[in-house]
Write a structure and sequence with these properties.
heterodimer, A: 462 residues, alpha+beta, Cytochrome Bc1 Complex, Chain A, domain 1, 2 domains, six-stranded mixed beta sheet, 12 strands, globular, B: 445 residues, five-stranded mixed beta sheet, 16 helices
């Protein structure tokens, strides 16, 4: 190796300047005459306005045997209205430079519109028509059902999707809607027709139990008047908001291998359940989980990626599943990534060592410091766009959290000490109570995984 | 119905340009809406500069740029930026390699110091351990993104068919496993010495900045890095405007459904014809009101998804990317017949006035979306500076697309969207795959 002498002049690492104060934006609330709740937030300069609608149509409300009807309804909302055919509706949206997406998840159906500020009224009119008077045409629904059946085959072949399906099926009780795919199985989707979609719409889509979130540059917009003349035309009977059933899960340590012969990598998904965002330790758990697996300098990637090269990256995270105002909701806690087939057992062994070391020795002050600096410091750029602010406000509504929740999380994070973060992450990821799903070549990985002692190993066909 | 108002009427992005004595081009743009600043550095090197037997080197090298330099420890780049509340990454394409940090305003100077340190002194830290580790990481990136997912290698295969033989765009940035294995530490060092020079880069800084202070910092940290001129231009990527005859490959492997993919040879990025092609592909295959979606997904019901995308390339012909996954028992022949019919009809009639208006509105929204963040703006400024020589072109880019006429869209479709101007990739599932999937439906656990 030749001695290398850089020719440049070096200077000491610069010191930071004075931070500019920043706080997560506080939304204003209003209610339309039809009972629709509105959260709105002016973000000057954000020319793409983001609008989210939360419909109180939880998956648990789907009729027995019709899993997937909420998903088909969500998609059917943009398949024409009382005045426009499906093709015309799609054309009008595009003509306004807008996008409209809708998906059904356990807590509710979310409809998301993005539209340039200059065409806000047109976008809101189309959104209102989709909610107020969707045509739900039989032939388009038949097509959406056929599409969904095709998609299931594609999802089954995707290792990450396959792993999630296997984990949810095993972690939750069979009777709980959480145990079954959000968009249904081939068997249930086949039974969905216009009548079923129409009935689900009639039972669950109404302004009094819905919430609208509007974020973007609203300069010069008389928002209340514009909303009354668009979404205000949506009518429906009053109804009580739904409540979510308690979540129970069996997280005794075990391993499920979904056999995928010939896989060059193993998809790894390690999960269990924990409290949702109402938990007083949620901020501490965010902090600790980031130190465990939030980035490539976190504990997991420091070893699995940057020392061993087993993976392109592994992440630890928490994802709320179903929430209530009383705090009885639950979240999925998980570690996820993929490793080359030969490194499967060694990567799992290292993961368990990392978790045990974390429990025994705790986090360091410098880890805590760097994590707080990142999580709090990155907020202004994380929330630069209207879409990201709208999504977080909608999450808060969906999870029955107060409007200042996210702002409060940042205040809490800044004040947390290392011990609190350690305690929370150790409680979140106990090594003996983790369900491990591996989607990979069982003939190569099963024997070595059995020897790890991380739980009984079951092999299932893909 | 009344015409919608135009989506934006602002006067564009305020831009100032500088050039340091060592050749580093600097583009600044001030915007104080949010207390953040984006730093973006484009090096004029991509996979098209790689030589035979060393595919993937530009991308592997990009990973090595995060492994420390004279004053930054291994992984220190990530630790320092994230520890300052910033986000960062790097990406490699055919034509360039970019590195970017978005920082809270008061930490901007740190990002400039870090970028300068690795531009000037990477080789002080680069060693075998980093090389071996990142080689494994990149191989796992390749497995995760391409080799272990259905149709994952389609991009690589279709690119190879589109750019034959020794063409510099024949291989994609991820490279081959064999070449990744073959790359040596000395290759990486030579690559750095050849391409990583201030006179082969453009730096943009966008956001809540004081331009005078910013240029003073840039001068302080980057100014002493010596220029050098060891760079070899990429091999010539000149090709005839059209292919002349179709190339086709049939893949039989374990995939969930049949698929028809194709790449059409299109005009170079930066030309008016490329914008016309963008509009043609948008009308034909972008979104749920497009002709192919309406025909294949809505009416014929032969496809689960159908669309067109545009891979804009400046140093070689751009590619129009067709991707159709079949539904149920539909055959490739049915799909192909319908696609060719739609393309022929479009080449004859061109877009309707309403279709053109919709396509322009979609492209306008995508453009707003890209420029909505300081990081997005910083990247676009570098793009126009590196590929087209002038960052100010960013302010006229959208206007050019909105100025294209239906006649021009029709003309480019007629000239380029023809069966004899495409590479085709057909996927047929192996006979037992479908059966295996049916059986799997039943065992959710």
């Amino acid at each position: 190796m030749s001695a290398y002498v850089p020719a440049m002049t070096f200077h000491p690492q610069p010191e930071p300047g004075t931070p500019t104060p920043w706080a997560f934006p506080a939304p204003d609330r209003l209610a339309l005459a039809n009972g629709l709740t509105v959260l709105h937030c002016d973000r000057p300069g954000q020319q793409l306005v983001a609008i989210e609608v939360l419909l109180d149509a939880p998956l648990a409300a789907e009729p027995e045997g019709l899993d997937g009807v909420a998903t088909i309804l969500a998609r059917a909302l943009s398949e024409g209205t009382d005045t426009l055919t499906a093709e015309e509706f799609a054309g009008e949206l595009e003509r306004a430079g807008a996008t409209l997406d809708a998906h059904a998840d356990h807590p509710c159906i979310r409809v998301i519109l993005e539209v340039p500020a200059s065409r806000l009224e047109r976008g809101l009119t189309l959104l209102a028509d989709a909610l107020r008077a969707p045509a739900l045409p039989a032939d388009e629904i038949e097509r959406l059902v056929a599409n969904r059946l095709d998609e299931i085959v594609h999802e089954q072949a995707n290792p990450a999707r396959r792993a999630a399906k296997a984990l949810y099926a095993d972690l939750f009780a069979a009777a709980d809607r959480l145990s079954r795919p959000r968009s249904g199985t081939a068997e249930t989707v086949k039974g969905i027709d216009r009548a079923a979609v129409q009935a689900f719409y009639a039972a669950h889509v109404r302004p009094t139990t819905a919430t609208l979130v509007v974020v973007g540059d609203l300069t010069g917009v008389d928002l209340p008047a514009m909303l009354e003349s668009t979404l205000g035309r949506w009518t429906g009977e009053k109804a009580e908001p739904s409540t979510a059933a308690a979540v129970t899960a069996d997280d005794r340590g075990r391993v499920i291998i979904v056999d995928r012969p010939g896989s060059v990598q193993t998809q790894v998904l390690i999960g269990r359940i924990g409290p949702d965002r109402h938990d007083p330790d949620w901020a501490a758990q965010i902090l600790g989980t980031y130190c465990l697996g939030g980035t490539l300098t976190s504990r997991l990637d420091k070893v699995l990626r940057e020392e061993k090269g087993y993976t392109y990256g592994v992440r630890a995270f928490a994802q709320p599943l179903r929430s209530n105002a009383d705090g009885s909701g639950r979240a999925l806690l998980a570690i996820s990534g993929s490793v080359d087939t030969a490194s499967t057992a060694p990567a799992l062994a290292d993961t368990w060592t990392i978790l045990r070391t974390l429990a025994a020795e705790g986090l360091t002050d410098s880890e805590r410091e760097e994590a707080v600096q990142f999580l709090v410091g990155v907020a202004p750029l994380k929330y630069e766009t209207a879409g990201s602010v709208a999504a977080t406000l909608a999450d808060q509504v969906e999870q029955h959290l107060p409007d200042d929740y996210q702002a409060e999380v940042y205040r809490l994070l800044a004040a947390l000490d290392t011990a609190a973060a350690t305690e929370a992450v150790v409680a979140a990821f106990p090594p003996e109570r983790l369900v491990t799903v591996l989607v990979g070549d069982a003939s190569v990985i099963a024997d070595e995984v059995k020897e790890l002692g991380i739980g009984e190993v079951t092999v299932v066909a893909n | 119905m009344a015409n919608p108002a135009p989506a934006s009427d602002n006067g564009g992005i305020a831009i100032t340009e500088h050039r340091l004595a060592n050749g580093l081009r600097v583009v600044l743009s001030e915007d104080h809406l949010t207390p953040v600043a984006a730093v973006c550095l484009w090096y004029d090197v991509g996979s098209r500069h790689e030589v035979k037997g060393r595919t993937g080197l530009a991308h592997l090298f990009e990973h090595l740029m995060f492994q420390g330099s004279a004053n930054v420890s291994n992984n220190g780049h990530f630790e320092l930026v994230q520890g300052a509340g910033g986000s960062l990454n790097g990406t490699t394409s055919f034509e360039r390699t970019n590195y970017f940090e978005t920082m809270p305003t008061h930490q901007l100077e740190l990002a400039l110091w870090l970028e300068a340190d690795r531009m000037g002194s990477l080789l002080a830290a680069l060693d075998d351990a980093s090389m071996e580790n990142q080689r494994d990481v990149v191989k796992n990136e390749r497995r995760q993104r391409y080799d272990n997912v259905p149709y994952g290698t389609a991009f690589e295969k279709l690119t190879a068919l589109s750019f034959p033989g020794e063409h510099p765009y024949h291989h994609t940035p991820i490279g081959s496993m064999a070449d990744l294995d073959a790359a040596t530490l000395e290759d990486a060092r030579t690559f750095f010495r050849t391409y990583y020079a201030p006179n082969n880069a453009v730096l943009s800084v966008v956001g809540d900045i004081d331009p005078e202070q910013t240029i003073a910092w840039v001068e302080k940290y980057f100014g002493s890095i010596p220029a050098h001129d060891g760079k070899q231009p990429p091999r010539d990527g000149t090709l005839p405007e059209t292919m002349g005859q179709e190339v086709r490959e049939l893949i039989e492997e374990e995939v969930p459904s049949r698929a028809l993919m194709a790449a059409y040879r299109l005009p170079h990025d930066g030309s008016r014809e490329a914008d016309a092609a963008d509009l043609a592909l948008t009308v034909l295959g972008s979104g749920e009101s497009s002709r192919l979606y309406n025909r294949l997904v809505r009416r014929d019901r032969t496809a689960v998804s159908a669309g067109f995308g545009l891979l804009r390339l400046a140093g070689a012909p751009s590619l129009g990317w067709l991707d159709v996954k079949t539904s149920g028992e539909a055959t490739i022949q049915q799909i192909e017949l319908a696609v060719d019919e739609e393309l022929a009809r479009f080449a004859t009639d061109g877009p309707t006035a309403e279709e053109l208006e919709r396509a322009q509105a979609q492209i306008e929204r995508e453009w707003l979306d890209r420029l909505t963040t300081v990081a997005g703006r910083a990247d676009e400024l570098c793009r126009y500076a590196v590929l087209f020589g002038d960052p100010k072109l960013v302010n006229s880019a959208l206007g050019k697309v909105l100025d294209v006429t239906a006649e021009e869209v029709k003309a480019v479709a007629a000239a380029r969207l023809r069966p004899d101007n495409r590479a085709v990739l057909v996927y047929e599932p192996l006979p037992d795959t479908a059966a295996a999937n049916d059986a799997a439906e039943e065992d959710a656990a």
